[in-house]
Amino acid sequence: MPKQFYTERDIEKLVSSGTRTLALNDDIVLTEQAYEAARRLGVALLQDRPAAPPSAPVRPYLSAIPADKKPAPLAPQPVAPPAPVAQPAPAAPTGASPQGSPTAERIRAAVIARLGDSVDPALLNTIIRRVLDSTGVK
């Protein structure tokens, strides 16, 4: 039997004709928009198996494995803490600092520690000044 596809427009037509339920089976396919329209318009979707969104693949082989044949879950393995990573020393600030505030200096040091010498000092000063000015932080 050929599959029958329902779109959002089809669901809207069903509702306008008074239909409030739609029985789903393997031969009926709803688009994602049709699922959303059915939910939005209160159409009950009746199915013989648990509901799955249209984009979810049907995998009958996953549930077909007998319980005694399923592999045992893996035991958790201890995780070693990450090795410390040497942080580059913050470069000495070049150029005038925005407003000369301690907050601006901390921000500058953090950015330089994170991004290194790839930051244009004048641009960084401008960005820090604008952010501090717009937030009212001194």
Keywords:
single chain, 138 residues, mainly alpha, two-stranded parallel ribbon, two-stranded parallel sheet, 5 helices, 4 strands
Compact description:
The protein is mostly helical and about 140 residues long. Helices cover about 40% and strands about 10% of the residues.
What's the gyration radius in Å?
A: 30 Å
Strand content: 5-15%
Biggest pleated-sheet summary: 2 strands, parallel
Cα distance spanning the termini? 72 Å
- Uncertain residue segments: 92-98
Shape: elongated
Can you list the strand order of the major beta sheet? 1-3
Helix/strand/pairing category: mainly alpha
Helix content range = 25-40%
Total helical elements: 5
Number of strands: 4
Element order: H for helix, E for strand: EHEEHEHHH
Compute the average pLDDT.
Answer: 76
Describe this structure in words.
The protein is mostly helical and 138 residues long. It is 38% helix and 9% strand. The protein has five helices and four strands. The chain has a two-stranded parallel sheet with strand order 1-3. Helix 1 (8-16) packs parallel to helix 2 (32-41).
List the helices and strands and how they pair.
Blueprint: E1 4-6, H1 8-16, E2 21-23, E3 28-30, H2 32-41, E4 44-46, H3 60-63, H4 102-115, H5 121-135
